[in-house]
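Field notebook, page 357. I keep forgetting to write these up properly, so this time I am using the form the group agreed on. The chain and the ligand, 3-isopropylmalic acid, are recorded exactly as supplied. Prediction of the bound pose follows.
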Amino acid sequence: MTDTDARPLVAVVPGDDAAPEAMTASLGVLDALDLPVRLDILPDGAELGRMEAGEREAFVIERLDAADTVLFGSSNGTTPGLAHLRWGRGTFANVRPVQWRPGYRSPMARPEGLDYVIVRENLEDAYVGIMGNVEDLRASGLIGPRARLVYEGEGRYAAKIITRAGTERVARFSYQLALKRAERSGRHPSLTVSAKTNMLPATDRYFADIVAEIGAEFPDVKLTRYIVDDMAHRLVTSYDELDVLLLPNLYGDVLSDLAAGTVGGMGLAPSGCYSENYAYFESAHGTAPDIAGQERINPTATLLSAVMMLEHLGLDRPAARLDAALSAVYAEGRHLTVDQGGTATTSEFAAAVTDRL
Ligand code: IPM
Ligand code: MG
């Protein structure tokens, strides 16, 4: 490694519980791709856990910031870095593809039409961390008439914030993604936005209205609006009408897991978090502590996140090769992990993907 090395530097964070098993297996596959990248592999959560918390955080963040991008294994809180990668780096668009492939164990009767992308606003909404005692709200006069009917005594509150600037940028990102996807699919570009617009006009209707307003810059993209409870139903009944679905942060968190369930489970759910000039990539699932140490975790979510990362780095050919190898292993169906009805271990599945490259 020299300072003049032009190859991008990828920080690899193995994560906690079962996540390092998915990452180790995935790195074996990436190794076979012989990529023009440099990897900086960080210690896993078990090792990081031996450091004092503050020191650990500084140590990880320094390594993350030294890299051009990050492949992040799931964290149970022991491995730090997630908050830095989101709020510290301003990655405002969390992109979560929802795509069924032959061989995925979907619970849906007709999963063939499942091919859309959730864009989850990644920084605002209920994730701003404004929480406290209802007492303080009462003191500030912020308790409205309906709350007064049900609220007496002790309680807590959490606030959500939706800003114009934050909504405009994620809206533009989503319209652009809709145009890009339409170019590839030949379908009419379409964006769906959803929030609890009827009950929460101050935040949720505001969000949807701004998205509609930005639509004037993208006259070719058809915008559809649904209230978010109806949207949840539609993710199960009418998913084939969806292409790009934009959601505020918390609904995006909840509905992207629902969406992953329709495809065949969290083990298949990749994601990438983007700002204007930076992005990092992580599986959308948790650390699966119940199967840690058993070589059972499905590394597909990590590998599909790596596909997104390679595309981000402009490495379209290896990205397409990896993507096709994954599809081939599922279509063949002989080396699937337990969550997909197979008996393959994490590394056996990964070896099958490598064989297909
Ligand atoms: C996700 C996860 C995170 C979130 C957790 C781990 C903080 O559920 O990426 O979807 O809520 O955003
Ligand atoms: Mg989540």
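OBSERVATIONS:
- The radius of gyration is 21 Å.
- The first strand starts at residue 9 and ends at 13.
FOLLOW-UP: compare against the apo run.
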